[in-house]
Design brief:
Distance between the termini: 75 Å
Number of strands: 8
Bound molecules: heme C
Number of helices: 8
Structural class: alpha+beta
Radius of gyration: 31 Å
Order of helices and strands: HHHEEHEEHEEHHEEH
Strand order of the largest sheet: 1-2-8-7
Length: 205
């Protein structure tokens, strides 16, 4: 009996000492905010890109949102006929039915009623490896969102802010988003109308 009482007094003494020292340690720290900051530091400086590499190719966007940059999925590696300069050199390509032979699959269904856009609204006529900006400047195919932005500025600014389009990965760390052409075919950008798929059984079955 005695031993048990002794044991428990001893245990509470030890416990008290531990509590006292930890309390002292806390009291010696600075403010609560400072402690939270110190605990977050390793995460704030963590490079997520290196710990979880993205399997898709990206480029840094030429736009920034609230001072921060973001990345965009590339396009050039998914364009079948790139590089265009393989055929489009300084001379006109001399092939009979050249256009239909090489680009006959391209159907333009883009523009206002009746007036379809023409190739040269978007493609640089002198340097086919590039698209063409508002002032005739070259636009890289990986940055084709800049081309779309010259006519669709509302969707473009929504996209820059993250309201239109899709973020690929990462809630923390740098934003990586789909390019406009990842979703829209620039030659025929509207999506087909479709009924929502339904898999529930009819009620009377
Ligand atoms: C296999 C060869 C080949 C490749 C590769 C090629 N083109 Fe062409 N392209 C032609 C030929 C041939 C013509 C018709 C003659 C001409 O305009 O020089 C043509 C015509 C065009 C025209 C004018 C069409 C018209 O209706 O006036 C555009 C625009 C064009 N090409 C864009 C491109 C772009 C952009 C690429 C790269 C993504 C590309 N081409 C890659 C062969 C090619
Ligand atoms: C609204 C702008 C726009 C118009 C108009 C346009 N293009 Fe394009 N075109 C693009 C963009 C942007 C791409 C790159 C698509 C991508 O990233 O997949 C492209 C891609 C292409 C390619 C490469 C496709 C492939 O996968 O090999 C060819 C060839 C081409 N365009 C030819 C033409 C021709 C010919 C015309 C006119 C008849 C034309 N384009 C009209 C914007 C346009
Ligand atoms: C030279 C100007 C111009 C460029 C560049 C351009 N577009 Fe368009 N786009 C138009 C016009 C004009 C319309 C028709 C507008 C309408 O019907 O209200 C249109 C229509 C559209 C539509 C259908 C809109 C609707 O209400 O159904 C989509 C989607 C679209 N464009 C996407 C794109 C994408 C993506 C790009 C870049 C690859 C692009 N556009 C580049 C002028 C342009
Ligand atoms: C994740 C895929 C995705 C990306 C990326 C994307 N869009 Fe769209 N976009 C859509 C969808 C889905 C719609 C709605 C289509 C519908 O209602 O039929 C749409 C609609 C549009 C329209 C029609 C008008 C409207 O606002 O509904 C335009 C114009 C357009 N997009 C332009 C662009 C441009 C320019 C970019 C790049 C800056 C872009 N989109 C990037 C999926 C995308």
């Amino acid at each position: 009996m005695k031993e048990i009482i002794h044991g428990s007094i001893l245990r509470s003494l030890v416990l008290g000492a531990v509590l006292l020292t930890s309390h002292l340690a806390l009291a010696s720290d600075k403010s609560v905010l400072d402690r939270i900051k110190a605990a977050n530091e390793p995460f704030d400086t963590m490079k997520i890109d290196s710990t979880h590499p993205l399997s898709m190719k990206t480029v840094r966007s030429n736009d920034s949102y609230q001072g921060g940059t973001f990345k965009v999925l590339t396009r050039k590696d998914s364009i079948e006929r790139f590089r265009c300069s393989g055929c489009h050199k300084d001379k006109k390509v001399q092939v009979r039915d050249g256009v239909s032979f090489t680009h006959g699959d391209i159907v333009i269904n883009h523009g206002s009623e009746g007036t379809s856009l023409s190739c040269s609204d978007c493609h640089n006529e002198k340097e086919r490896d590039f698209l063409v900006g508002k002032k005739g400047q070259k636009i890289d195919f990986d940055h084709s969102y800049q081309l779309c932005g010259k006519c669709h500025f509302r969707q473009k600014s929504d996209w820059v802010g993250g309201a239109h389009g899709k973020r690929v990965k990462y809630w923390a760390g740098e934003r990586v988003v789909y390019n406009c052409a990842t979703c829209h075919n620039p030659h025929s950008p509207r999506f087909k109308k479709r009924m929502p798929a339904t898999f529930s059984r009819p009620l009377d079955e």
